[in-house]
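Working notes for the structural subgroup meeting. M.R. asked for a predicted model of this chain before we commit to crystallization trials. I am recording the input and output together here so anyone reviewing the notebook later can reproduce the run.

Input as submitted:
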Amino acid sequence: MNDLLLILKAISDKNRLRILSALLSHQELCACQITELLQVAGATASRHLSLMVNAGILKNRKNGRWIYFRINTEDISLDPILKWLTHKLKGSGQVIKDEDALNKILLVSCEDLCRKQRGETTCSKNQTGVNG
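Returned structure, recorded in token form:
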């Protein structure tokens, strides 16, 4: 029952639903791309992502200084929830706006997004504190 509660809590937030929707359309996104999509502080995005990883909804991998997130397709018990969410989110005004924004975001390198988000000319080695 505790696992189910973690999953339900993890999807009971608008920004986390936006992350899921984006990852349902794009197999994998960098933390900086998700941060840019949500237009929140990196720490806020990191917290959302951490909750979703801890609930088992997302998986992540590190590639250099970048952390990439994807939906946990290894847990087949998530399939019905993800199908339901896909159906419920389809055609949502927010999802359409996010898809347009994400298409623009994906044209920018992670390095440039990092610079923009941090207001720096170079990026630090620590992009986000989420581990998995």
